[in-house]
């Protein structure tokens, strides 16, 4: 019985370590020259191609834990450039996702506070700098964005993307 329990405990520990390693792996920068995988469709859209950008939306990030604007509207099918201006003295980021994805990622950041991001729906912006994200919003609905650095999300650094259905062309 004790051997069985020890075996189960060891299996669970290995499974937890493997899961944590996979989650952390998605946040480590890829080596130079590594092949870039095909864009992954997410519930909130897909990485866009710079040549398809229809408009640029400027979003300011500040140390008072705000995004300005905190709500943006786009049309389903639009490819936009989100130009992120960090006006603060702290590192900020913008992470796109559903509420559930943002909250799960925030919990992961608490477990691994030194994680680095390397996903097309996440952009780190150093103090006083500007960063860009090109995204195609190909699904209608309301989606979230947030800064998951330190405790910024818990302090209210979040916003909303409202993706309106594509205009009827008939």
Automatic annotation (TrEMBL):
Residues 28-47 are annotated as: Disordered. One of its GO terms (cellular component) is periplasmic space. It comes from the Bacteria. InterPro entries: BlueCu_1 (IPR000923), Cu-binding_ET (IPR050845), Cupredoxin (IPR008972). Residues 1-23 form the signal peptide. Pfam families: Copper-bind. Residues 61-163 form the Blue (type 1) copper domain. It is found in: Periplasm. PANTHER family: AURACYANIN-B, COPPER-RESISTANT CUPROPROTEIN COPI. This is Plastocyanin. It comes from Variovorax paradoxus.
């Amino acid at each position: 019985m004790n051997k069985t329990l020890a075996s189960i405990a060891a299996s669970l520990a290995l499974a937890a370590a493997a899961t944590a390693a996979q989650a952390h792996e998605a946040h480590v920068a890829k080596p130079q020259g590594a092949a870039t995988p095909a864009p992954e469709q997410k519930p909130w859209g897909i990485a866009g191609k710079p040549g398809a950008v229809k408009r640029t939306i400027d979003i300011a990030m500040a140390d008072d834990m705000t995004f300005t604007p905190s709500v943006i509207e786009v049309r389903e099918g639009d490819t936009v450039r989100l130009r992120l201006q960090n006006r603060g003295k702290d590192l900020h980021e913008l992470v796109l996702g559903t509420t559930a994805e943002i909250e799960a990622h925030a919990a992961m950041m608490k477990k691994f506070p030194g994680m680095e991001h390397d996903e097309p729906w996440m952009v780190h912006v150093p103090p006083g700098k500007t960063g860009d994200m090109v995204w195609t919003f190909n699904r209608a609905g309301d989606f979230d964005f947030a800064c998951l650095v330190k405790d910024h999300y818990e302090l209210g650094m979040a916003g909303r993307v409202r993706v309106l259905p594509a205009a009827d062309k008939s």
